[in-house]
Design goal:
The protein is of the alpha/beta class and 409 residues long. The chain has 2 domains: 213 residues, Glycogen Phosphorylase B (Rossmann fold, 3-Layer(aba) Sandwich), CATH 3.40.50.2000; 168 residues, 3-Layer(aba) Sandwich (Rossmann fold), CATH 3.40.50. Helix content is 42%, strand content 15%. The strands form 3 sheets. A 7-stranded parallel beta sheet has the order 3-2-1-6-7-8-9, with helices on both faces. The protein has a 6-stranded parallel beta sheet with strand order 12-11-10-13-14-15, sandwiched between helices. It has a two-stranded antiparallel ribbon with strand order 4-5. Helix 8 links the parallel strand 11 and strand 12. The chain is elongated and about 70 Å long.
Amino acid sequence: MSDIQREKGGPDRKKLRIALFSGNYNYVMDGPVRALNTLVAYLEKNGHEVLVFAPTTDQPAFDHSGTLISVPSIALPGRRSEYRLGLGLRGNLKQKLQDFAPTLIHIAAPDYTGYSALKYAKRGKVPAVASFHTRFDTYPRYYHMGWAEKYLTKYMRHFYQQCEHVYAPSHSMVEELRRDGIGEDVRLWTRGVDSIMFNPDKRDLEWRRACGFEDDDVVVAFVGRVVLEKGIDIFAETFLRLKKDAPNAKALIVGDGPERERFQKQLEDAYFAGYQQNEGLARAYASADIFFNPSITETFGNVTLEAMACGLPSLGAKAAGSRSLIEDGVTGYLAEPNTDGFAVRLLALVQEEDARKSFGVTARARAEAFSWDRVLAELVDHYYEAIDGFQAANTHNAGSVGGAKQDAA
């Protein structure tokens, strides 16, 4: 038995000191950031210590959880300074990490700072785990740089194979990473949803009307960062095709980002609600009739789960994120990720009111099973197993070296 007790939930387990490294922790709100902040709040509530290292800005998007150490960074080109690239562990940052003496390093992005943290873990003999939030290697295809995808995949394979565990947010993503050799020990860390905040009762007809929607309109919602990799072009193309057969279909866009102006030009009749959070976000979901997520870069799809909790039927791509949440023909539809595939399914949802209502009821029931406390308790158990496995491997290696030296003598 190691000094970190292995019994799940055992009261004598030593409290952890987690150093968390992320490329974004509080300056842009998105699904991964929401998950990481929820994790830190949970860890601290249960007596563990956490130190977060991430780039920061002068105007954060929200009040973050835990203690955040600012990592020097530069704005990424082409994204209007939306996201920042950390410049790694330097000087006083490294000293702060050493003084903290983490029992585990958790890396949430395979960027330069994440790689610096991984190198530190190797040198300091500290176990490192990683959570997988985005298929970054697919991004080049949206920016006319498809040639770079295979090189990014190769780098990600190299990076994640050095971690004790890799945590993926859905069963389909676990299978995908194992298939692609991204990580040696890939495990599930799913997501939760606040089903009290996000629920069908937040539907607000007066708010709908204020947005310009008639009561008999069928409102199709997009929720997320307004960036190319979220599939906004396909959303626009699909919706414009839908309008030819369903003039009562209306688009609701919730979110903001560098491509908003482009998106608004594509969908001139849509209502753009901008960035929403908490009660405002819940109201927007519940006041729509269909949720449409065309993205294929999602590893889970927090927005889909929130929409389900609000009682919406969903349309998503036959890709890792959506496939893990949407049950085709039960809580919504899955389609091939192209305009033709989406248009057929979206038209069916618009025209079949009874199916929409049935899917929505089932989606709400499914969403209620996703409890944050349960999934985070499981992640902490994985942490302890990573530490135990790391210690056992190092003890074995030390014994092997010692035995070899003794034999040689």
